[in-house]
Amino acid sequence: MKTLYVINHSHTDIGYTARQEEIEMYHVDFIKQAIDIIEDELLHHEKSPFVWTCENYWQVENFMKHASESYKEKFKQYLELGNIDMSLNYLNMTELVDEQVLNHTLKRGQKFVEQMNRQINSAMTADINGFSWSYCSALLNNGVQNLFTCIHAHHGLYPLYKNQMPFWWEDQTGRKLLVWNGEHYHFGNELYIMPDAQSSYQIQDEYNGDVSTPQLEVAHKRINRYFSDLEKRGYPYDFAPVMISGFISDNAGPNEKILESIDNWNELYGDQINIQMVGLNSFFEIVRNQYSDQIPTYSGDWNDWWADGVGSTPAATKIYRDAQRKYHLAELLADNESENDNRFKEAEQNMMLYAEHTWGYSSSVSAPWNTMVNELEYRKSGYATQASQKINSFVDDDCR
């Protein structure tokens, strides 16, 4: 029997589908919705098969800032039970990110999970083609032992020209990060597992545009073909992981209907391919416990080919880069006192939000006259100018 592991999450684009400040609250509400689903399941069953993975610590950080004490306690409870899982990556970043700022934000996630009665040591990224070699070290320095990547290959290639494969990513000091180089982050939806959330962005077959064939009939064809294709290319495992969202969109919330869909599948076809919801950290426990001695090792940069946005706003990027230089100057002149200054922390946060991978509203190419295109662009540029303002204020007042 084969197993299809389904990792249920919401891809974070700070912008693209709505204003940045709305996106922040969307993800707070998504975690609340996931908690409600789990709580309802536990009221009727001893255990809940529903598992929600928070794609990054930014989601969790905002949740802990805005949620009620009751929701915060339930979050921690379900995190320890394994019904909620989380990634220790802070956001999906471009190569603009500053090393020290990145380390400071990654450390916040590690500090949060240290209080949990469960080992959480994994990170994931989505929509990112690659990373500098130093990103491996930054993750390892902050308690991350595993990285799941969901590359969007629209403007790039998978490393080693393959996906659905693990490898050890060795840093400059010889330490190793376990990477699972996976499918696109909506690929689970393309397999027609999630009710009312199907699409055919990558899979091209006879069901493209078909809205009349029953969902599980399409799922049966596509999932079996998928495992068959993996076998033909020499895939050595009896399982495959896929990411899935509640509907076909970035910043998509949870959908409890997936439980019924998985139950129906397993009743009909589970003796051949069993579908199981799993969290990010739980998935890596499976890989490490059973397959770690079979995984090859590689080192070096993992090139990011399509961070187009960085070049589309040169004026704001110039301001951002100047803020980076002032940031390091301030650290030298302030003799380590900068870390306790709120302006310094706010500058760091704005630098992270500017370097995050989202550039522009979804219609920025097809309908650039859309007011939302302008709103998101000005807000994005605002992160750079706010970082500059905060760090210049600190330098002017404290570093003379």
From TrEMBL:
Organism domain of life: Bacteria
Gene3D superfamilies tied to this protein: Glycoside hydrolase 38, N terminal domain (3.20.110.10)
InterPro entries xrefs: Glyco_hydro/deAcase_b/a-brl, Glyco_hydro_38_N, Glyco_hydro_38_N_sf
Sequence ranges assigned to domain Glycoside hydrolase family 38 N-terminal in this UniProt record: 4-299
Pfam families tied to this protein: Glyco_hydro_38N (PF01074)
Name of the protein this chain belongs to: Glycoside hydrolase family 38 N-terminal domain-containing protein
